[in-house]
Write a structure and sequence with these properties.
853 residues; alpha+beta; Rossmann fold; Topoisomerase I, domain 3; Topoisomerase I, domain 4; 6-stranded antiparallel barrel; 4-stranded parallel β-sheet; 23 helices; 34 strands
Length: 853
């Protein structure tokens, strides 16, 4: 057995490091954190803010293996990542594995290369408790905020919602941007463009320096231009330079990978993690733009070799952010001699990092910018043509230029022909086009990261999980926004004649940008109104500053928690007691048929339209909104249209047919089967013929593909991928099978494996109580409904064997459950019978999910 045990947090990292260390070292992975706050309950003593950490069920076997390996080793090297999260992983390992200071060493490295690993072994240190405490402070504070704010949302908005410190602020940014777009009033003006010809018939495209607010002023200018002799009034040529951007930080990598490669933040970080673990790049969670001297020398050598000495211009960059922490270097290649790697997907991101780092060490690009002024003294405004020539490409040779979404799409700078001051030009065409101002753009993932960083909210490690969480919670999504159409006026002056035409242009459409959901908007407004400080951008940034102070040893973390909680908890109590319920209610108008008010609001099952008041003698009726509709913008007319759903059509094969809309979108109901209507299709347009087409497509999809012991086998694709169905059992089909062409032997194999697994699943089962003792991946568990509970140890502190569990009584199992969840068997409050009946009568059809096709 090796004398030295090295523990890292990922198997890929372990594999890479093992290559660099000799036979005296064994490298094992902890697969991330081995312990954390419990999944059930808060897990924090609110009197002392002491966390109650536990080893999760899926890590117990691993911890046992690590403990066995520790016993055989003379020295344990804790080699998790160098940031706060990595420091906390090392500390949890030391605590759980009971490592004594004399038998453990903490090593960190910024890159997984042989030199870096061996150097870290030569320079070990102990665990930095300040970094650990900064991570604990973040974890504990965020757990408290989530656990105390979420129940308030259940009471005041709707059940099942959750809140988070950074996530709620991110949602607020998206909601405020959407409101800004809604309230934006576009302003029209007329922009003039001219195309002029010199004596050599070369074209010069130019823009009028100032726009006209009124159509008549633009038309007057065109009239005046008919008889104007256009001249070159001025030619100005001036040299300029463009300099390269700094090497990548986490944030700028996420932004650039989005604009250049189309990668989302999560995908970028997943690929960057692999590049780091396989030794190709330095650590990818950093807010520093600094490069080591070794890296600067490596880049210089590669630039001279690849492009020539004139392209080399070594330099270092300084990080502007005062809160930049823990990171020693920007993200860069570990070896500049590696110009590409084999894996195509990894190589695209590697090339971006490689080129950006090289560019940062290259000479500035030299340009020559030319501005030509065209006009006449009798004109109120003059035209201007701009162009530029690259004299020396410098860093552009490696990195090129990419336009951002904020760049003016019409500002296409180009090469201009040579002209002299006083030279007469002929106009070929002058156009005046009505243009409307545009609101601020919705956030892309990269744009949201940029804004969070700008506000000092979150840190490199938090951007990706924050963005993932707000989508998982369905507070925001990236649904497509349909364009609207408006008329614009365009006037053209050609050959002394003005032609006026009215054109149509599309505006307001969007895709792949963040839009708040109805629930997200109502929750954000409620939290902003009632927890102003927590949702305040400055407060969130100050909390991040406090974590930095804890990491630097300038503040004690429990003192920070005490100060925070002394203000936070009383606010929770006050809001819980006094705040009004939040529904986002909008009164749209009065229903012409019943004379009752029509409301758009959030209900128990999401956004809906309500006709009537809840306290009326005759209970209100409800309709679900369709995809693309929301309570903040739906019109009165659109709302009334929804009450035409559901509607009945003629029977098909003796089974009733209707069309409706539910929580998961519009559907055709055939008998008891719900069939999704294709995306983008208006359910109100579905007639008998179209409904039958949809039903026949469903029949075809559901037709048996084979039999097993005389029972039909069908197949489909669900949220967890392709499956086959036998009787009432769904069986996932792994990738090794050809799903489109399953043979009978494939089907037999899949069904038999599933039946064998199901037969071995239950140790004991009490169906009436929905309680069972089951075999799970890491050992036996207790299930009650959908909840999972641990099986406690016996009185002698040993585990129950499977045979012993077969003899355990139901009462004993119930005791195990209530020990872990005292409210597990508490009776749920039943809604008033009258209310339930009314809701069922009107909304049952709209609440059932539409089956996937």
């Amino acid at each position: 057995m090796s004398k030295n045990l090295v523990i890292v947090e990922s198997p890929a990292k372990a594999k890479t490091i093992q290559k660099y260390l000799g036979k005296d070292f064994e490298v094992k992975s902890s697969f991330g954190h081995i312990r954390d706050l419990p999944k059930k309950g808060m897990g924090i003593d609110l009197a002392t803010f002491s966390p109650d950490y536990e080893v999760s069920a899926d890590k117990k076997k691993l911890v046992t293996e690590l403990k066995a390996a520790v016993k055989k080793a003379e020295m344990v090297w804790l080699a998790s990542d160098e940031d706060r999260e990595g420091e906390a992983i090392a500390w949890h390992l030391a605590e759980e594995l009971k490592l004594k200071p004399e038998n453990r060493k903490r090593i960190v490295f910024h890159e997984i290369t042989k030199n870096a690993i061996l150097k870290s072994i030569e320079n070990p240190r102990d665990i930095d408790q300040n970094l650990v405490n900064a991570q604990q402070a973040r974890r504990v504070l965020d757990r408290i905020v989530g656990f105390e704010m979420s129940p308030v949302l259940w009471k005041k908005v709707k059940p099942g919602l959750s809140a988070g410190r950074v996530q709620s602020v991110a949602v607020r940014l998206i909601v405020e941007r959407e409101k800004e777009i809604r309230e934006f009033i576009p302003k029209a003006s007329f922009k003039l463009d001219g195309v002029f010809l010199n004596k050599a018939e070369q074209e010069i495209s130019a823009k009028l320096k100032k726009d006209f607010d009124k159509e008549e002023d633009a038309e007057k200018f065109l009239e005046l231009s008919k008889t104007t002799e256009f001249k070159v009034l001025n030619v100005e040529t001036k040299p300029g330079t463009r300099s390269a951007s700094a090497p990548f930080t986490t944030s700028t990598l996420q932004q650039e990978a989005s604009s250049r490669l189309g990668y989302n933040v999560t995908n970028t970080m997943r690929l960057a993690q692999r590049l780091y673990e396989e030794g190709y790049i330095t650590y990818m969670r950093t807010d520093s733009v600094n490069l080591s001297q070794e890296a600067i020398e490596g880049a210089k050598k590669q630039i001279i070799s690849e492009y020539g000495a004139e392209y080399s211009s070594p330099r270092n960059y300084t990080t502007k952010s005062a809160s930049a922490q823990e990171a020693h270097e920007a993200i860069r290649p570990t070896d500049f001699a590696v110009t590409s790697i084999g894996d195509a997907q990894l190589n695209r991101l590697y090339q971006l990092i490689y080129r950006r780092t090289l560019a940062s060490q290259m000479a500035n690009a030299k340009i020559e910018k030319t501005v030509i002024e065209i006009g006449n003294a009798k004109l109120p405004q003059h035209f201007e043509a701009q162009g530029e020539v690259i004299i020396f490409d410098g860093f552009l040779k490696a990195y090129g230029i990419v336009k951002t979404e904020d760049d003016d799409e019409e500002n296409n700078e180009k090469l201009l022909p040579k002209v002299k001051v006083g030279e007469i030009l002929d106009y070929k065409k002058i156009t005046a086009t009505e243009k409307f101002t545009r609101p601020s753009a919705r956030y892309t993932e990269a744009g949201l990261v940029r804004k969070l960083e700008e506000l000092g909210i979150g840190r490199p490690s938090t951007y990706a999980p924050t963005i993932q969480t707000i989508q998982n919670r369905e507070y925001v999504d990236k649904r497509e926004i349909d364009s609207q159409t408006r008329e614009i006026v365009k006037m053209s002056l050609v050959k002394d004649k003005i032609k006026k035409e009215v054109l149509e242009e599309k505006f307001g459409g969007d895709k792949n940008k963040f839009v708040p959901t109805d629930t997200g908007e109502v929750v954000s407004d409620f939290l902003t109104d009632n927890f102003k400080e927590i949702l305040d951008y400055g407060f969130t940034a100050r909390v991040e500053g406090s974590f930095d102070e804890i990491a630097n040893g300038e503040q004690k973390w429990k003192e920070m928690m005490t100060d925070f909680y002394s203000k936070f908890h009383p606010r929770i109590q006050d809001v819980e007691e006094h705040a009004e319920r939040a529904t986002g209610d909008r009164l749209l108008g009065v229903d012409p048929k019943t004379g009752k008010n029509v409301h758009a609001r959030i209900g128990r099952f999401g956004a809906m339209i309500q006709i009537g008041e809840t306290d009326d003698e005759e209970k209100p009726i409800f309709a679900s909104l369709m995809a693309g509709q929301n309570i903040a913008t739906i019109t009165f007319e659109e709302a009334l249209e929804l009450f035409k759903l559901p509607f009945d059509l003629n029977e098909v094969d003796g089974q009733a047919v209707s069309v409706g809309v539910g929580r998961f979108g519009p559907y055709v109901k055939w008998g008891e089967t719900y069939i999704s209507i294709p995306k983008g299709e208006d359910p109100l347009s579905v007639d008998q013929k179209r409904a039958e087409e949809i039903i026949n497509e469903k029949k075809l999809a559901d037709a048996p593909i084979a039999n097993y012991k005389g029972e039909p086998i069908t197949k489909g694709t669900g949220r967890f991928g392709p499956f086959i169905k036998y009787q009432s059992i769904f069986i996932n089909v792994p990738k090794k099978y050809n799903f489109e062409n399953l043979s009978q032997s494939d089907i037999n194999e899949l069904v038999e494996a599933k039946l064998e697994k199901e037969a071995n699943r239950y140790i004991q089962q009490w169906e009436a109580e929905k309680i069972s003792i089951e075999n799970a991946r890491w050992g036996p568990i207790v299930k009650h409904g959908k909840n999972i509970y641990k099986i406690p140890k016996k009185k002698d502190d040993t585990k129950y064997e499977s045979e012993e569990l077969k003899e355990i009584s139901l009462d004993e199992v119930k005791k195990w459950i209530t020990d872990q969840d005292p409210k597990a068997f508490a009776e749920k409050k039943k809604p008033a019978a009258k209310k339930a009946t009314t809701a069922k009568k009107v909304t049952t059809k709209a609440k059932k999910p539409a089956a996937k096709k």
